[in-house]
């Protein structure tokens, strides 16, 4: 059980991944981004998640460097994730994309590198490149993002390394029960992006009721629900007080009934693209 902000889950290759991190989707390059990364690390976050397509790897790298220095931390104490974008998928182009991401971040290696979307006819070659990076010790763990069960099955038919992580849209309106069950069976760690449904759930009456019951915010209740389902979560925020508030979820526990009540909010509703039907 994750009882502390720096507690980790163990991936199937033995690598320790923090159960909670900062996401920076749609946060533009600039001081706000640098300060958000620094605030998170200062507050005790040890996991930062970015992607090539976010166009902010440089700012993330700067925030990491400044935070390490200011907090007397070593690079090894952080867990940094990035993702290969669709246009770069394929064997050679993925290897090149990895180098580009490292250069922008100013890092020697990543802790986790993901395929951002299951691009038909390409993701297997992309995975082969990730396996190469992994075997060469260039990255600690490799995984995928936005993969459905059938994508994972197709990938694993030819893979020599099983994905360690699958990062997907996951929140109380999209509980991904089948995918979570499959991931647990396979030893693949599920990770939630957009856990707060980009704020859409913050005025949900059922969740407001639970928040009042526990003396917590709706965001804290949802993020706690993630952890109790064994799902790693990376809420996005640029405000220091919100970054701190999001992480204050280790001093209470949702009952089984309340977990079930949140599960019951599922409508299989996405706010992001459908992994089976996207055109980018």
TrEMBL record:
What UniProt keywords apply to this chain's record, in alphabetical order? NADP, Oxidoreductase
Keyword NADP annotated: yes
Show the Pfam families listed in the entry: Aldo_ket_red
The answer to whether UniProt assigns keyword Membrane to this entry is no
| NADP-dependent oxidoreductase domain boundaries | 29-267
Tell me where on the tree of life, at the top rank, the source sits: Bacteria
Among PANTHER family, the record links this protein to: 2,5-DIKETO-D-GLUCONIC ACID REDUCTASE, NADP-DEPENDENT OXIDOREDUCTASE DOMAIN-CONTAINING PROTEIN
The family this protein is said to belong to: Belongs to the aldo/keto reductase family.
Report the protein name in the record: Aldo/keto reductase
Q: Which species is this record about?
A: Paenibacillus glycinis
Q: What is the lineage of its organism?
A: Bacteria, Bacillati, Bacillota, Bacilli, Bacillales
